[in-house]
Amino acid sequence: MKCLATRRPGPSMTSMAREREERRLQQRTNPKGTISVGIDATDLFDRYEEEYEDVSSGGFPQIEINKMHISQSIEAPLTATDTAILSGSLSTQNGNGGGSINFALRRVTSAKGWGELEFGAGDLQGPLFGVKLFRNLTPRCFVTTNCALQFSSRGIRPGLTTVLARNLDKNTVGYLQWRWGIQSAMNTSIVRDTKTSHFTVALQLGIPHSFALISYQHKFQDDDQTRVKGSLKAGFFGTVVEYGAERKISRHSVLGAAVSIGIPQGVSLKVKLNRASQTYFFPIHLTDQLLPSAVFYATVGPLVVYFAMHRLVIKPYLRAQKERELEKQRESTATDILQKKQEAEAAVRLMQESVRRIVEAEESRMGLIIVNAWYGKFVNDKSKKSEKAKVIDVTVPLQCLVKDSKLILTEASKAGLPGFYDPCVGEEKSLKVLYQFRGVLHQVMALDGEALRIPKQSHRIDTDG
């Protein structure tokens, strides 16, 4: 008699279908937004001398917002090849502000290219008309051209930007850019992006800005997707050194901070939060001079604040959020889990006779005997006392899978095996097996989605001494 191998249906897909629909809608409209708030905190380090007593500050440093910028864009697919793009922005600096609105219509002309018409208007720069073209020249080379006419009280200001790019290898792209009109320049850059690093080197010759740039970013292979970066930019208007880091703090949020040290720009701290497709940017200008104290506080301050917030706010919030999601998932799948449990218990009862014969055959040849096997969530010594192990006994169904003194499990969730079910939905699970082979005890623990092959010499329990 063969072991029962009934495949049971998966959990309820209602919530997953809703999430997929929301994700599909977001991908179709592709909303993007940016909020930038510039903060002038130079009074923290560059205080006026005491002779300026007519300026009443109350003894506290004056920190003020000196500029703001808000922009938003959304895409609306019209047909399979046409897309309308609507965007707008508002900005203010030192009491003077303005805004603009743009409308673009993009058409995919072929598999190799697309074109875009853009119309815009604003209270500061006047009407705008632009044309953008993209074309793949070869499988490894493409070109982008952007032509624009800006109408203002001083006349028509034309502009042209052309970018030629080529894939130099699997991870490296080279760019050549020519810009004519407003701030004419020629720029060449090489960008190398791999799984563990991102490297950029660029050189620009232009009016009025000419500079050389080198930038490196290291990507750590951890769950938080931590990245550290540094860059050096030198040109006619000074030199800027920048270093910083960014880290994923939740499923859709990435927090980053960078310190910018330049001559004659001074010292600035830049804090950025990416939340899904929204970006919040806070450049904080600390001092116009190169003060060691400003560099120290700009470097250490964000680290102290982050670790304090991570321990006191972020981790408790994520833990509570995960518990709510798990509880909601358990409630929605409770009936299904109960049904699967009953099916698994029925399958185990049907396996008993087959398992008895398998054990007798394995004992006769001193083969593979599953002494004990558990599947689910295990609690180690470091876990909180309030946590409880959620495991089920899978000794019988696992012994039923033994063939010729071997047991092979593929890279898939063990919950789908005959006689198994998920005892802790949404939580990390493992399979722990105590088995005997050639009269010697062995033990192994494997993650839920990890492949497992036994027996192995490395699983042997050392009984010496």
Automatic annotation (TrEMBL):
Domain DnaJ-like protein C11 C-terminal: 328-455
Signal peptide: none
Keyword set includes Acetylation: no
Key words of the record: Chaperone, Stress response
Entry GO terms, CC: mitochondrion
Database matches in Pfam families: DnaJ-like_C11_C, DNAJC11_beta-barrel
Region annotation (Disordered) ranges: 1-30
An individual GO BP term: cristae formation
Segments forming domain DNAJC11-like beta-barrel: 68-280
Protein's name in the database: DnaJ heat shock protein family (Hsp40) member C11
Annotated source species: Pipistrellus kuhlii
